[in-house]
Amino acid sequence: MKFLHLVVFVFAVSAVRAQAPAAPPAGFKHANATVNGVNIHYVIGGTGEPLVLVHGFGQNWYMWNRVMPELAKHFTVITPDLRGLGESGKPAGGYDKKTMATDIYQLTKKLGYSKINLAGHDIGMMVVYAYAAQYPSEVKKLALLDALIPGVEPSWSTYWAKAWWWGFFGWEPSGQIVEGKMNVFLTNFWPMVGYKKNAFTAAESAEFIRSFSVAGATSGSFHWFGAFPQEAKDNAEYMKHKLTMPLLTVGGDHSTASFLGDIGRKLATKVTEVKVSNAGHWMLQENPAEVQAALLSFFTAK
To answer: Phi and psi of 268, rounded to 5°?
Structure first.
C-alpha cells in the first residue's frame, strides 16, 4: 500500500511539473505585469538597450530560447506572451493587433523604457508593425520575421487563398473543436509550414503544446486570426505614413523570403532584407544561427 501511495505521489508531482512553464535560459526570469487591462507574462534578462521579441502562432516566448543568451550579451531582452496564450490573460476581446501592440507598449513603459528595439515573428510580426505604426518615435529599430501583414498586397490575397488554416482559426467555433487536442493539432500543423523535419527539440514541442493547452488558450489564440479583416483596415491607414526607422525583413528561403522584402518596402523607407537558407516558417528552430546573426548585425549596427 505504501508503494502504491508513493507511485500516486510521484505521478501527481510529475503532472504538476509537466504543467509548469519551461525554465528560461540562464540569466533570465519569468515575470508578470498588468497592462492595458490584461496580465502579460514575459521573460526578461540581459543588459543594455531593450530588445523586445514577440512570438507568433504555434509557439510562445520560448521560440526565442536558442538566440536569447547571445542577444542578452548586447541587450536587455524581453520576450512576452501575447494576450490569449499561456500565462498571459485571456480576455473576451482585444485580439486585434492594434490592441495587442498597446499591451506590449504599456509593458515597455511599465518597465521604464522610452525607446525600444523590436522584432516579431508570424502573428508577432503583425503586432510589432502595429506597435511601430502607432508609436514610431519610440521604436529605434524594427525587425519583421516571416509572415504577412493583413491587407498588404499582392501577397495578402494570394496567400490568403492558400492558407486554409487562417479561415479555420478565424471561425468562432474552431477553438472549441480543437480544445484539448493541441498535442495532435500542433504536431500535425507545424510540418505544414516548416521545411526541416523534426526541427523542434522535445523541450520546445512540450512547451509550445503546454502553452496552447492552458485553459482558454486555444480559443484565445484563434481570436488572433478572427481580427484580420479589421487589421487590414487599420493597416491601410498606417501605410499612409511610411515608417522611417531602420527596418529588417527576415524570411525563410522555403517560406516568405521571395516577397517579404517587398512587403517591408511598402511599409518603410529604410529596409534591409535577409533571406535565411534552408528554412521554412520556423526559422528560429530550423536555422537559428543565421537568424541570430541577422538580428545581431542589424540591431547592433550604429
So the answer is: -145, 165
Phi, psi angle pair for 52, to nearest 5°: -100, 125
C-alpha cell at 222: 484563434
Q: What nine digits make up the cell of 116?
A: 525600444
Q: What strands, in cross-sheet order, belong to the sheet with 28-35?
A: 28-35, 38-46, 75-80, 49-54, 116-121, 139-145, 247-252, 271-276
Q: How many CA atoms lie within 13 A of 7 on its CB side?
A: 4
CB 89 within 8 Å of CB 100? no
**How many domains is the chain built from?**
1
Domain that holds residue 135: 44-300
Residue 21 resides in a domain: no
The model's pTM: 0.93
CA distances in angstroms from 255 to 21, 53, 99, 192, listed in the order given: 29, 20, 28, 11
| CATH code, domain with 79 | 3.40.50.1820
Which amino acid, residue 92?
A
Q: Work out the mean pLDDT of the chain and round it to a whole number.
A: 92
DSSP-derived pairing of the beta strands 28-35 and 75-80: unpaired
| pLDDT tens column, 134-168 | 999 999 999 999 999 999 998 898 876 677 877 78
